[in-house]
Design goal:
Residues 48-67 are annotated as: Disordered. With 152 residues, the protein is of the alpha+beta class. It has helices at residues 32-40, 43-47, 65-81, 127-141; strands at residues 17-18, 23-26, 85-90, 97-105, 113-119, 147-148.
Length: 152
């Protein structure tokens, strides 16, 4: 694979992952209100999740809805440009946002990609099952061999 390209040109990125207790779809500005509610209700939960060791996210000062929307637009643009893939984690029962998944080029040269995920505090029991499902999904549906899962 070309080291300047995150995914091969002939690769079609998956746009969903469905399990009994959650489903993923690409994150976009349409998720703004529910995404903002999910992460602002779960700052401590997120900061205790593997992969968020530096405490810089979520931002301690929070975000305005406009700033959060801009962040979601950036993630959607990255997805469209194939530079990174961010998914919202939805509750299949009611469609509410219960978490997020980020797949981006790895910062560590020993890896090709890195993945981080979080679930809101009210769904903390899904953290492990989500991480396990993501590991299987990455191995089966994505093009990388060396993914940094931040100790998961």
């Amino acid at each position: 694979m070309d080291t300047d390209v995150f995914v091969p040109a002939d690769f079609t990125p998956p746009t969903s992952l469905v399990r009994e207790r959650f489903r993923l779809e690409p994150l976009g500005p349409q998720h703004n209100e529910a995404d903002l509610a999910a992460w602002t209700s779960s700052v401590d939960q997120i900061r205790d999740t593997p992969g968020y060791p530096d405490g810089s996210w979520p931002p301690p000062e929070g975000m305005t809805p406009e700033r959060n929307r801009q962040d979601l637009e950036r993630h959607a643009a990255d997805f469209a440009a194939r530079k990174g893939f961010t998914f919202t984690v939805l509750d299949p029962a009611d469609g509410d946002v219960i978490g997020c998944v980020y797949i981006y080029p790895a910062q560590d040269p020993a890896h090709e990609a890195e993945i981080q995920s979080w679930v809101r505090a009210s769904h903390a029991e899904l953290d492990g099952p989500l991480a396990d499902a993501l590991a299987q999904w990455l191995a089966e549906a994505w093009p990388w061999q060396r993914v940094d899962r931040f100790g998961r």
